[in-house]
Protein 1
Amino acid sequence: MDIFYPVQLFADWVSYTVFSFAKNSVLGGAVNFFIFDGIKIFLLLSVIIFVVSVIRSYLPPEKTKKWLSNRFEIVSNVIAALIGIVTPFCSCSAVPLFIGLVESGVPLGVTFSYLISAPMVNEVAAVMLLGLFGPTVAILYISSGVIIAVIVGFILGRLKLEYLVEDYVWKIKVNNQMKVDNKTVSDRLKESCQYTINLVKTVFPYVLIGVAAGALVHGYAPENFLARIAGKGNPLAVPLAVLIGVPLYSNAAGTIPIVKSLMEKGLPIGTALAFMMSVTALSFPEMIILRKVLKPKLLAIYIPILTLGIIFTGYLFNLVI
Amino acid sequence: MKIQVLGSGCPTCKKLHEITVEAVKQLNLKDSVEYITDVSKIVEMGVMSSPVLAINGKPVMVGFLPDMEKVKDLLKEAQK
């Protein structure tokens, strides 16, 4: 049995008994969809964010940087991208993280793998995908994010761009004496709880707006209208989706329910994945913050390579699935 | 006691500064809270995430927004 079956029963009860909509009416269907998805995502967000933040409390960057100087650089790229899955950082941590890694001898390309994977394989986005599309799409999203992070990081590492990092970065003296604090398990649980509540509070309004918009599309947009304008036959759809995704950074949580409804109306999976990746990975605020440590030329190399990686993934999934 | 909040000026860091100022007031401490947005100061402390709450130059809370009670506890502990 589906573990969300009781939620469906509840949604049915509210929409058809409490509000007494007709069972096959468009409005009734939209309301039902809104209640079911809203509750389901709330439950998934709370549980998974909590688990991820407990895992993360064992992996502070001060500790993981030691694992990132492998003799074979590509191995470090892979480890960095994997660590990035469970350690999303608020964009305000990007600069100290970057300086800290580069200073402790982690190669520039490996640092980039981490910087790409951490925001792109976003915990909230992964949860929303799991809740709305099921495990296959969530795993596809996570693994293609990791692969892009590894490849783009590896390429940037080969280009030997160290001279394009702002000079002051190399001059900072890092005090490595700081001991990684030994928190008790109850401390970790308490902190994770706090973090989960804060995060759910911040993103949930966007989730609700997104689910509502998604419910409207679900109920009212004509079948297959997107298949005609943005289907596999239109080669410009993927780059266009990536462009539209760039300014939507702060609303990653709200965009996914809309994307789900758009897919029901014929948006191909690759185009949808490329769109979601550009929402999470290509964010203006983060680029502006990274400018503090990277010379403009390095940003001008980094952004197009990452963009091409995302577009390529979009085409690939459209071809394969 | 030297109380510092370090961050890169993001909303979370500003919130931590507000909470800390309020905690100091509620504990009737005379110390002022310094707000530092120079990221290199964070890195010099050996820390790699923001925001940071530092007391007497030592980071006591890193990369996470605690509630008021937690900040008060940390301040009380440091006073001893």
Protein 2
Amino acid sequence: MSSNNDIDNLIEMMARLPGLGPRSARRAVLTMIRKRGLLLTPLADLMQTVAATARECLSCGNVGTTEICDICRDEKRATGEICVVEDVSDLWAMERAGVFKGRYHVLGGTLSALDGIGPEDLSIPRLISRVADEGITEVILALNATVDGQTTAHYIADQLEGRVALSSLAQGVPVGGELDYLDEGTISAALRARKPV
Amino acid sequence: MDWREDGIILAIRKHGETSVIAELFTESHGRHAGVIRGGVSRKLTPILQPGAQVDATWRARLSEHIGSFTVEPVRSRAAVFSDRFALAGLNAVTALLIFALPEREAHPPLYRRTRDLLDLLGQDDLWPLAYLQWEMALLEETGFGLDLSRCAATGQTENLVYVSPKTGRAVSRDGAGEWADRMLPLVPCLRGEGDASDADVLAALGTTGWFIENKLAASLGNRPPPEARGRFLDAISRRIARG
């Protein structure tokens, strides 16, 4: 254990990060100190830069370093389609797949009766104004297949019904999934969404 | 300390990075919370959805501890996720149970009604009336039951058209007299009569809603009733508007 307060504080801060505990934070800090020039200094510089520049995109809610993010500024992505996601991590997951070429809208959560999160606590009003202002032709609801996620999807669908085409992600058998291990809800959703082959 | 029985999942909250705190509604132990380790895993997440029926085992060193659950799926109700009307109903039921019931107080008749009601999810023609009857059972279990058998003023059993907001008892047209404008409507479907159209059920839910807001909520420190109930009523209204 180090006797230096700053190092202890750094370990304590690192241990608060998701996926890290005190032990793994200690290992990470020790590695960074040992590779000061290679890891610690560049990381500290980058963290300072990101701390100064990181912000939410004013249009979609994505996290970037400019007021309007790269995706929203990209003219090639003005396809008239908006993909609605719950969180920035979902947006990044969609981008990793690389199949969607339109723009996004990050809600910042889902409706939750338990936590008292209502429509006004999410960026639903901004989504509705974007649909009206940006010539949107289709809204794709890419929300989690949970009670809260689907409740939010239905709420948005009610708000936008008749104004724009609405669709949602399919639900069913995942790639590599074995039917024997699937829950009955997933099997029933998959059966209802079956397609001709 | 341990026990094992079937339960309905009412809510799931994340607890740390890998666990969740689940609130279950069981027949013998009422609304009961417990930690489920690994509850955010890919294996457990599909099982741990509100409305799902699980075989739960609760363990704790002392009974007053929150304890931990291990669960096995009994019945998933995820099939209703794509049905906005059914999902709104499911949300209203789970939110009202969390709102109205104290922890660890058994309500066996209400548990059985809730289980039967959730089994009807997706049968949209039957569901609104079944939900109304469940809400009346909830009021009954929490001490605010409606007595609609006879007029509170005259003892008449016919021509009952009002419910007294003060007592929750039926009042006939003659019995109401000059107080009629202060009474709540007694829609026939509240007494199990009539064809119980969506409009009738919606009007009847206005009456039960009055008791939830003004009697039940008042007894719980004037907490506002869950918005999920209002959203379900909106869903019924939209269905009426669509015809």
Protein 3
Amino acid sequence: MPKVLGIETTGAFCSVALFNESRVIASKINKQANSHSSILHLLIQELLQEQHIKPSDLDAIALSSGPGSYTGLRIGSSSAKGLAIATGAKLISIPTHYGMLFNPTLPNDTKAFKHVICLTDARRNDVFATAYSLDKDRIGKTAVLDLTDELVQTQLNHSASIIIGSGAEKAEALLSPIHLYLKDDALHAANLFEPSTAKFANEEFEPLYDFGPLYEKEFYTNQKVSK
Amino acid sequence: MAIETSCDDTSIAVLKEDKILANVTANQEIHAKYGGVVPELASRNHEKNIVRVFNEAINQSGIDQSELDAIAFTQGPGLLGSLMVGVSFAKSLALGLNIPLIAVNHLQAHIAALYIENPNPTFPFICLLVSGGHTQIIWVKDFFSYEILGSTLDDAGGEAFDKIGKMLDLPYPAGPAIDRLAQKGDPERFKFTYSKVPDFNYSFSGFKTQVLYFLRDQEKLDANFKASNINDLCASIQHHICTYLLKPVAKLMKEREVLGLAVVGGVSANAELRIEMQKLALKNQIPFMVPDFQYCTDNAGMIAEVAKYKFEKEDFVTLDVVAKARF
């Protein structure tokens, strides 16, 4: 049975999980915020040791690939690439918002709602937003939205949605009460089990030399372009 | 294998016994357009380049990755976001290959760049480290112990070259261009005053302001002043910086018994600085050391050189090690 390591570093807490094709074998999460850099590899090491698995036994690394904290994205991506090179494992990329759709806080019966909208806090009034149908099909692209913008509010309030992610709290203060707000960051490496199993079966792997995290936003600098 | 990502160069080297088999560096030319390194952009590019640089280093070295005995990385000082990419990648390689991990101080590595060509230096020696990020006078007692006796209080020497180069409309990084143009100019034509700071320290911000006002005043009289005097300007500015860099070194040599003189860091590639340092060493009849050009600027070869000594001492780190912007 294939062994897949899931890595989630895009939010405040980092987590890792080990899957085979039928279940999540084990997982670990670190609840100390923003310590990915020191904790991630220890979590991986402990997880593998406890399951008596050598890194070289891994068949794939499934990475929650963004959007999220830029530093977190890079820690996850650089670590996943290094591990894939060292062990010969394949790299699977799962967009972070898609992974959120498999979070256990999401209700099973969602018929009353039209969409699931995944929101990740992006500082100031901005959020990274991706809308999905109830069948988990993405609608449009991931966007950076200013939730104080009235046009954005009108669009988002058009129909009742389930709003989930670290941006849900900001959204509840600014958007209509018709929505269901799940104020959970909805991030856990275990969420990657279903989508990565599907990608593994279809052999949808990322080329290591070409892969990059989904920043979804141009970098910002106040340094001016010189003549 | 050694990995260096402290600023804007992604570099990976492979060392076997005493020989550097590969030293591959990807430069990020994109920063030129901003006249300086943009940290977020540097971090993104490290993440993007690192696998290609790894593949190239392995190919050049002619070894198989399964033959690696340890992974070394730059722990700092440097840009935190950039360092984190190298640290994360290094930890994963060490974990995945089940080999030890070695943390290397970037400044110590600049000094160790000397030992690549010169494995038996005479201690103690004075090492002047000048780069785009650092300017220090280091008292080197032996391979492992050193003491920082002086530092810049503001800009680094290389930064002064780059920022003044920007005022002169030269492309970033301006150091090499100033060096080249200076060779055709008169170093005595324009005079600037030297900033006085205590002990063995430096300050470049006053000089920078002097040049800024000087150029502004001259341009009022002649709009083409910069272009028509570029060679003399470069020569005079370079001469000022080099002379200034040497002053505290000369002072220290009078106070202590010194058995060698060295210059390292990106600015050690500057011709005038090399010549003046060598002259100072000759005058005092002590050996002069400077790294080979390829080991002057940021590179992983020098990180591998420190790692070699640490590997022998089994000075390894655990997987919870983190990057440090400052030491």
Protein 4
Amino acid sequence: MEEIIKNIEKMVVITAKKRQRDNLYFVTTGKDQAIPVITYLRDYEGFSHFVMLSVADWMEEGEFELMYLLNHPVKKVDIGVCVRIPRENASMHTAHHLWEQIWSYQRELKEMYGIDFPGSPRVDESFLLEGWDQIPPMRREFDTLKYAEETYFPRPGRETHDPATYMKQKLYPNE
Amino acid sequence: MNSKFKIEPDRSLYPSVGKDGKLEIDLSSGKYVKIWHGPNHPGVTGNMSLELTICGDEIVEAKTHVGYLHRGFEKIFERRTWMQCFPTVVRMCVPEPDTNEYCLAAAMEELSGVEAPEYAQWMRTLVLEMARLTNLLRTVPGLGGTMGLGLGVQWGVYMRDLLLDRFEELTGARIYHMYIIPGGVRGKMPEGFKERLLSNLKEIDDFSLRVKKLIFDNAVVKKRAVGTGYVDPSWVDRFGVVGPNARAAGVNRDVRKDYPYLKYAELDFEPYVDENKGSDVYSRFWVRYMDMINTVALIRQILDKMPNDGEILARIPNALHWSIPKGQTYVRCESSRGEYGFYAVSDGSEYPRRINLRGPSYTHAIALLEKLLVNANISDVSPIMVSLTTCPPEIER
């Protein structure tokens, strides 16, 4: 696996790399380099199984981190190709031409995080939410509690507790 | 027969494809009709629907619609401590919730450097196999159910109930067990549990024989299921097909063998692979049937090999204030539907930055199903869909 990562480093700049365990590695590269790296891994290194496309919102740093997880079915090893993109007008190159299921991941990320993938099929069609007119709900600034309080109303007689305080009262009332 | 009648040899040419590469479907021509298969339909797996464009009784276009069950779990996780995610995470999959418990627990343990004790690992293995069997008992006779032969399903529901009794005895809950927790499991095997479970397995052996005769040896079922919904083996990687659906296409994919976790490396078993690459509705159900038989054998093997007693929980930090070190990981296990994984990201705080589920249905129910349904008969929608064992909550999360 180290050899494969060295091969990638010959092609593009790897800004971070981590061996999470024997069969799981993460590498971070730039926005314009990610899709060529993924294509290389698929076509030349045998990472033929696309596991998932995910994103973590690092709001404090003003960035999203996309993670393309690829699997090598013969060598039994995974590699996560990570890409940092700005949160403002977030956009990423599409990878729908590489695996058939990627367009549905990209469609979901467009709806849930507002990350655009120009050229991706049906990317503007709603995935889960119909008629949603607020900010994409998976962005961290979207306040679910505020939304729930404004949209729904509580049933009379229902109490809520802060779980940590409630458990402390139950378990360690004198501390 | 009218000599002018001609069968179109290549059905994919009907309707024709326009210059822009899209199908030329003119709904106003009266030739095509749009119908909705689900979300309320006996032949739909859970709360999802299919928007079908049909010409006569042939499907020319299919689109999967989800969103009827979206509960925002992954968003909720951001507001919960890691431990508080447990009661929620199990609800991601009703028929087999234990895989969620295991994946989250394993991700937290890996990021924190905690290892569950030996006995707890055996108990986890046992519970995951029981969960697989519970789901297969309901799914396998479902082949008959999709074609109007509901008797096998009724038998399966009863058999599943026997195992739910065991789950209730072991965990206190029938559906959402919350038994596998970070660091280990919640309890030991009750007295007499092993004997009662073995007795249930004996009944399931008998059930398996009856199901084979009722469904798999049934001429009508064979006539409808063989050759229907064919998944080409080359699509396995192209569409991300996993688990029994891949094994029906002759591609051996099983996380338990490929990436052994818990105690699977110490168990002697071989996942069933359809060497004939049938890869149709019948073949996929037959692989699941064989999985059911193998799971029963595996549970017996686990009960035989596991220690009688031991520690159930490793030493873990205060569960209410457990800060997971900064990092990210992907943990997978084999559910009855295939590879099931969690991508977890921690920012070093008590709250997860991101927990993302990768369920097999995400690819099977959208990209693959939409492809398989084109040119299928509308009466084959349910068998094809159920043969992929799609589970909408995995998609919506």
